[in-house]
Protein backbone atom coordinates (compact mmCIF):
# COMPACT_ATOMS: atom_id res chain seq x y z
CA UNK A 1 0.00 0.00 0.00
CA UNK A 2 2.96 2.31 0.56
CA UNK A 3 3.46 2.67 -3.21
CA UNK A 4 0.19 4.63 -3.33
CA UNK A 5 0.97 7.05 -0.48
CA UNK A 6 1.59 9.90 -2.94
CA UNK A 7 -1.89 9.38 -4.40
CA UNK A 8 -3.44 9.16 -0.92
CA UNK A 9 -1.83 12.43 0.07
CA UNK A 10 -3.69 14.07 -2.84
CA UNK A 11 -6.97 12.72 -1.49
CA UNK A 12 -8.76 15.49 0.44
CA UNK A 13 -9.67 13.04 3.22
CA UNK A 14 -5.99 12.86 4.21
CA UNK A 15 -5.19 16.57 3.87
CA UNK A 16 -2.77 17.72 6.55
CA UNK A 17 -1.68 14.20 7.54
CA UNK A 18 2.04 13.44 7.23
CA UNK A 19 3.21 10.50 5.14
CA UNK A 20 4.97 8.92 8.12
CA UNK A 21 1.60 8.74 9.90
CA UNK A 22 -0.30 7.17 7.04
CA UNK A 23 0.45 3.53 7.80
CA UNK A 24 -0.83 3.67 11.37
CA UNK A 25 -3.81 5.74 10.27
CA UNK A 26 -4.83 3.24 7.57
CA UNK A 27 -4.57 0.43 10.10
CA UNK A 28 -6.81 2.39 12.46
CA UNK A 29 -9.35 2.87 9.66
CA UNK A 30 -9.33 -0.84 8.76
CA UNK A 31 -8.51 0.17 5.18
CA UNK A 32 -8.14 -2.50 2.52
CA UNK A 33 -6.76 -2.35 -1.01
CA UNK A 34 -8.58 -4.07 -3.86
CA UNK A 35 -7.57 -4.62 -7.48
CA UNK A 36 -10.32 -4.72 -10.09
CA UNK A 37 -10.70 -5.27 -13.82
CA UNK A 38 -12.30 -2.87 -16.29
CA UNK A 39 -16.06 -2.96 -15.93
CA UNK A 40 -15.97 -4.38 -12.41
CA UNK A 41 -18.62 -3.06 -10.02
CA UNK A 42 -16.90 -1.75 -6.90
CA UNK A 43 -20.10 -0.72 -5.13
CA UNK A 44 -23.46 -2.23 -6.16
CA UNK A 45 -26.73 -0.34 -5.89
CA UNK A 46 -28.57 -1.95 -2.99
CA UNK A 47 -25.41 -2.66 -0.98
CA UNK A 48 -25.09 -1.36 2.57
CA UNK A 49 -22.99 1.84 2.46
CA UNK A 50 -20.35 0.63 4.90
CA UNK A 51 -17.30 1.89 3.03
CA UNK A 52 -15.84 5.03 1.57
CA UNK A 53 -13.83 4.41 -1.60
CA UNK A 54 -10.68 6.14 -2.83
CA UNK A 55 -9.21 5.73 -6.32
CA UNK A 56 -5.54 4.75 -6.08
CA UNK A 57 -5.09 3.85 -9.75
CA UNK A 58 -7.48 4.12 -12.71
CA UNK A 59 -10.89 5.78 -12.67
CA UNK A 60 -14.54 4.94 -12.15
CA UNK A 61 -18.04 6.26 -12.78
CA UNK A 62 -20.73 6.72 -10.18
CA UNK A 63 -23.92 5.72 -12.03
CA UNK A 64 -27.62 5.49 -11.32
CA UNK A 65 -30.06 3.26 -13.20
CA UNK A 66 -33.84 3.45 -13.29
CA UNK A 67 -36.24 0.49 -13.24
CA UNK A 68 -35.75 -0.09 -17.00
CA UNK A 69 -31.96 0.02 -16.87
CA UNK A 70 -31.49 3.53 -18.28
CA UNK A 71 -28.19 4.78 -16.94
CA UNK A 72 -27.17 8.25 -15.80
CA UNK A 73 -23.56 9.06 -14.93
CA UNK A 74 -23.56 11.20 -11.81
CA UNK A 75 -19.83 11.80 -11.65
CA UNK A 76 -16.43 10.59 -12.79
CA UNK A 77 -13.81 9.82 -10.12
CA UNK A 78 -10.09 9.90 -10.87
CA UNK A 79 -6.93 9.04 -8.92
CA UNK A 80 -7.08 10.58 -5.45
CA UNK A 81 -10.86 11.11 -5.59
CA UNK A 82 -13.34 9.72 -3.06
CA UNK A 83 -16.75 8.14 -3.56
CA UNK A 84 -19.57 6.86 -1.37
CA UNK A 85 -18.90 9.22 1.53
CA UNK A 86 -22.28 11.01 1.48
CA UNK A 87 -24.26 7.77 1.64
CA UNK A 88 -22.09 6.40 4.45
CA UNK A 89 -22.44 9.54 6.54
CA UNK A 90 -26.14 9.81 5.73
CA UNK A 91 -26.67 6.29 7.08
CA UNK A 92 -28.96 5.33 4.20
CA UNK A 93 -30.11 1.72 4.30
CA UNK A 94 -28.89 0.88 0.79
CA UNK A 95 -26.80 2.53 -1.90
CA UNK A 96 -28.93 4.12 -4.64
CA UNK A 97 -25.96 4.14 -7.05
CA UNK A 98 -23.27 1.83 -8.39
CA UNK A 99 -19.58 2.58 -8.85
CA UNK A 100 -18.04 0.95 -11.93
CA UNK A 101 -14.35 0.79 -12.84
CA UNK A 102 -13.67 2.26 -16.29
CA UNK A 103 -10.28 0.54 -16.57
CA UNK A 104 -8.20 -1.94 -14.62
CA UNK A 105 -7.38 -0.24 -11.36
CA UNK A 106 -6.70 -0.23 -7.65
CA UNK A 107 -9.05 1.15 -5.00
CA UNK A 108 -8.87 1.72 -1.26
CA UNK A 109 -11.92 0.87 0.84
CA UNK A 110 -12.17 2.55 4.24
CA UNK A 111 -14.63 1.54 6.94
CA UNK A 112 -16.76 4.67 7.30
CA UNK A 113 -17.54 3.88 10.95
CA UNK A 114 -13.83 4.07 11.74
CA UNK A 115 -13.70 7.60 10.32
CA UNK A 116 -16.65 8.87 12.33
CA UNK A 117 -15.89 7.11 15.61
CA UNK A 118 -12.73 7.69 17.65
CA UNK A 119 -10.76 4.54 18.26
CA UNK A 120 -9.92 3.11 21.69
CA UNK A 121 -6.37 4.46 21.48
CA UNK A 122 -7.71 8.02 21.05
CA UNK A 123 -6.11 8.38 17.62
CA UNK A 124 -5.07 12.02 17.12
CA UNK A 125 -6.13 11.95 13.46
CA UNK A 126 -9.87 11.63 13.86
CA UNK A 127 -10.71 15.28 14.43
CA UNK A 128 -8.82 16.20 11.25
CA UNK A 129 -10.40 13.33 9.30
CA UNK A 130 -13.90 14.45 10.25
CA UNK A 131 -13.14 18.06 9.27
CA UNK A 132 -11.70 16.85 5.97
CA UNK A 133 -14.72 14.63 5.34
CA UNK A 134 -17.14 17.51 5.92
CA UNK A 135 -15.19 19.60 3.39
CA UNK A 136 -15.27 16.77 0.83
CA UNK A 137 -19.04 16.38 1.16
CA UNK A 138 -19.56 20.13 0.81
CA UNK A 139 -17.44 20.23 -2.36
CA UNK A 140 -19.33 17.25 -3.81
CA UNK A 141 -22.59 19.12 -3.26
CA UNK A 142 -21.16 22.04 -5.20
CA UNK A 143 -20.21 19.72 -8.08
CA UNK A 144 -23.69 18.20 -8.19
CA UNK A 145 -25.18 21.69 -8.22
CA UNK A 146 -23.01 22.51 -11.23
CA UNK A 147 -24.19 19.37 -12.99
CA UNK A 148 -27.79 20.45 -12.38
CA UNK A 149 -26.93 23.72 -14.10
CA UNK A 150 -25.95 21.73 -17.21
CA UNK A 151 -28.74 19.18 -17.41
CA UNK A 152 -31.58 21.61 -16.65
CA UNK A 153 -30.85 23.61 -19.82
CA UNK A 154 -33.67 23.34 -22.34
CA UNK A 155 -31.88 21.96 -25.39
CA UNK A 156 -29.06 19.51 -26.03
CA UNK A 157 -26.97 22.32 -27.49
CA UNK A 158 -27.41 24.44 -24.37
CA UNK A 159 -26.47 21.47 -22.17
CA UNK A 160 -23.32 20.80 -24.22
CA UNK A 161 -22.30 24.47 -24.21
CA UNK A 162 -22.86 24.74 -20.46
CA UNK A 163 -20.66 21.72 -19.77
CA UNK A 164 -17.91 22.64 -22.24
CA UNK A 165 -17.84 26.21 -20.95
CA UNK A 166 -17.35 24.93 -17.39
CA UNK A 167 -14.51 22.67 -18.58
CA UNK A 168 -12.77 25.54 -20.38
CA UNK A 169 -13.04 27.78 -17.32
CA UNK A 170 -11.72 25.02 -15.04
CA UNK A 171 -8.76 24.33 -17.36
CA UNK A 172 -8.10 28.00 -18.08
CA UNK A 173 -7.95 27.18 -21.79
CA UNK A 174 -10.26 26.82 -24.77
CA UNK A 175 -8.60 23.46 -25.51
CA UNK A 176 -9.17 20.53 -23.16
CA UNK A 177 -9.96 16.82 -22.86
CA UNK A 178 -13.06 15.52 -21.12
CA UNK A 179 -13.14 12.23 -19.21
CA UNK A 180 -16.13 10.77 -21.07
CA UNK A 181 -16.50 8.87 -24.32
CA UNK A 182 -19.53 9.76 -26.46
CA UNK A 183 -22.01 7.41 -24.76
CA UNK A 184 -20.80 8.43 -21.32
CA UNK A 185 -21.07 12.10 -22.27
CA UNK A 186 -24.67 11.52 -23.35
CA UNK A 187 -25.42 9.66 -20.11
CA UNK A 188 -23.90 12.48 -18.06
CA UNK A 189 -26.02 15.12 -19.81
CA UNK A 190 -29.13 12.88 -19.77
CA UNK A 191 -29.60 13.02 -23.55
CA UNK A 192 -29.75 10.44 -26.32
CA UNK A 193 -26.39 9.61 -27.88
CA UNK A 194 -27.70 10.27 -31.39
CA UNK A 195 -28.98 13.69 -30.35
CA UNK A 196 -25.64 14.52 -28.77
CA UNK A 197 -23.67 13.40 -31.85
CA UNK A 198 -25.92 15.41 -34.16
CA UNK A 199 -25.59 18.47 -31.95
CA UNK A 200 -21.80 18.24 -31.78
CA UNK A 201 -21.53 17.90 -35.56
CA UNK A 202 -23.83 20.88 -36.11
CA UNK A 203 -21.79 22.97 -33.65
CA UNK A 204 -18.62 21.96 -35.46
CA UNK A 205 -20.12 22.88 -38.84
CA UNK A 206 -21.15 26.25 -37.40
CA UNK A 207 -17.56 26.87 -36.30
CA UNK A 208 -18.41 26.91 -32.60
CA UNK A 209 -16.23 23.94 -31.61
CA UNK A 210 -13.69 21.49 -32.93
CA UNK A 211 -13.36 18.00 -31.51
CA UNK A 212 -11.55 14.72 -31.93
CA UNK A 213 -13.11 11.98 -29.79
CA UNK A 214 -12.99 13.46 -26.27
CA UNK A 215 -10.67 16.38 -27.11
CA UNK A 216 -12.45 19.72 -27.60
CA UNK A 217 -11.57 23.24 -28.68
CA UNK A 218 -14.00 26.13 -28.24
CA UNK A 219 -13.76 28.33 -31.32
CA UNK A 220 -16.19 31.24 -31.01
CA UNK A 221 -19.12 32.64 -29.08
CA UNK A 222 -22.28 30.68 -30.03
CA UNK A 223 -25.16 32.60 -31.55
Automatic annotation (TrEMBL):
Pfam families (alphabetical): cNMP_binding, HTH_Crp_2
Record-linked InterPro entries: cNMP-bd_dom, cNMP-bd_dom_sf, Env_Response_Regulators, HTH_CRP, RmlC-like_jellyroll, WH_DNA-bd_sf
Keywords on record: DNA-binding, Transcription, Transcription regulation
Domain Cyclic nucleotide-binding: 13-85
Domain of life: Bacteria
Signal peptide: none
Protein name: Crp/Fnr family transcriptional regulator
Amino acid sequence: MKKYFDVMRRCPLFAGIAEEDMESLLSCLNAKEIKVKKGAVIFHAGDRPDYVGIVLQGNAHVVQEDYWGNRTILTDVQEGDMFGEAFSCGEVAALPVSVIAQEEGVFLLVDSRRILTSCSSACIFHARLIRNLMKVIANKNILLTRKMEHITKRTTKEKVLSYLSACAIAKGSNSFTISFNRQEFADYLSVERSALSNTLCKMRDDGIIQFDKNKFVLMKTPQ
